[in-house]
């Protein structure tokens, strides 16, 4: 995949039980991701099967073509890399091409919120060449996203010939700070409902 964007989608459920329901009843994790000793297929093949299973749940009309992915998910390709589990949270780590798949984020958030109205999604992404980084948040109050484009001066920190002139760590520190700012902003913007209460 060229012009890649690496994405981490953190889904937080209101309880461990609802995470288990999502993991085992919906994703069918036990079916698609048995222990390697119990399966003749590779981890990536098993993860791809789980991915395709879930995609058919949230988008039954999806076809395995670039045009269908663009129409339904907003990007021509999505490839799951890994799943991480915590107490009541699952991280879905994946790569996509060219642009963040906002339609996919929306479909996934709608599906998760149908299961758990108190759930929330936090999505962060970075372009492989740091052309941009971004964050989005989804919950019952709505959704929001923001992006940051590094300046030319910041990008120059990644360019050096002499190792003594390597300032890449400074660049990554700056990007980390900017990502934290993006996350704080989108989380704040979905921390309350903008809907006006109905007149009684």
Condensed summary:
This protein has 200 residues and is of the alpha+beta class. It has helices at residues 16-26, 29-32, 43-58, 66-73, 102-115, 152-156, 168-189; strands spanning 4-12, 78-85, 89-97, 120-127, 133-139, 142-148.
What does this structure look like?
There is one protein chain. With 200 residues, this protein is of the alpha+beta class. The protein has one domain. The protein is 40% helix and 24% strand. The protein has 7 helices and 6 strands. It has a 6-stranded antiparallel sheet with strand order 2-3-1-4-5-6, sandwiched between helices.
Mean pLDDT: 93
Helix content class: 40-55%
The radius of gyration over CA amounts to 19 Å
| Content-based structural category | alpha+beta
What's the helix-strand series? EHHHHEEHEEEHH
How is the main sheet built?
6 strands, antiparallel
> What is the terminal-to-terminal distance?
55 Å
- Sum up the overall morphology in one term: globular
Give the number of domains. Answer: 1
Could you list the spans in which at least 5 consecutive residues all have pLDDT below 50? 196-200
């Amino acid at each position: 995949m060229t012009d890649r964007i690496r994405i981490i989608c953190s889904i937080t459920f209101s309880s461990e039980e609802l995470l288990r329901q999502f993991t085992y009843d919906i994703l069918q994790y036990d079916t698609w991701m048995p222990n390697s000793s119990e399966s003749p297929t590779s981890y990536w093949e098993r993860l791809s099967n789980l991915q395709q299973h879930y995609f058919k749940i949230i988008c039954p009309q999806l076809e395995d073509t670039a045009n269908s992915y663009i129409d339904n998910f907003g990007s021509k390709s999505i490839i799951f890399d890994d799943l991480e589990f915590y107490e009541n949270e699952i991280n879905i780590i994946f790569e996509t091409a060219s642009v963040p798949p906002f339609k996919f984020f929306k479909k996934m958030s709608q599906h998760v919120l149908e299961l758990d109205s108190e759930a929330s999604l936090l999505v962060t992404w970075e372009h492989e060449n740091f052309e941009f980084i971004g964050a989005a948040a989804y919950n019952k109050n709505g959704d929001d996203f923001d992006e940051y484009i590094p300046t030319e001066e910041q990008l120059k920190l990644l360019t050096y010939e002499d190792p003594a002139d390597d300032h890449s760590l400074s660049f990554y520190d700056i990007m980390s700070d900017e990502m934290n700012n993006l996350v704080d902003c989108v989380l704040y913007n979905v921390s309350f409902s903008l809907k006006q209460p109905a007149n009684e």
